[in-house]
Amino acid sequence: MADPMRIRAQASGDKATVRVLMSHEMESGQRKDGNGKTIPAWHIQDVTATLNGKPVMTAEWGPAVSKNPFLQFTIKGAKAGDKVGITWKDNKGDSRTDEATIS
Predict the structure, then answer these.
(1) How many other CB atoms are there within 10 angstroms of residue 91's CB atom?
(2) pLDDT digits over 26-80, tens only?
(3) Measured by CB atoms within 10 angstroms of the end CB, which terminus of the chain is less buried, N or C?
(4) What is the per-residue DSSP string for 34-66?
(5) CATH code given to domain 6-101
């Protein structure tokens, strides 16, 4: 399983800014190793964000996203103390879910 995501969520008025740094190799399937063999594709396909357990954002990613991707978004109606959860799933079936409290 991948390393934990680094999630920062800060409230400002009636919204919160969420910043997420994900740890993932994100291979495109187009690079070659030292022997000239193609390195198989391995990338995040689905990202979901929740606020107190309710989905607020979904994204479908592909092989063009960089290694250890960074994601930032704003949630309206969020306040300090609310819980933000982030889940990703990759094309090999691995997944990771982490949660942070909005400050």
Answers:
(1) 17
(2) 999 999 999 999 999 999 999 999 999 999 999 999 999 999 999 999 999 999 9
(3) N
(4) TTSPBPPPB-EEEEEEEETTEEEEEEE--TTSP
(5) 2.60.40.10
pLDDT at residue 10 greater than cutoff 80: yes
For residue 73, the model assigns a pLDDT of 97
CB neighbour class for 83 (10 Å; exposed up to 12, middle 13-18, buried from 19): middle
pTM for the model:
0.90
> Any long-range contacts for 78-81 (C-beta under 8 Å, 24+ apart)?
78/9, 78/11, 78/14, 78/15, 78/16, 78/51, 78/102, 79/11, 79/14, 79/16, 80/11
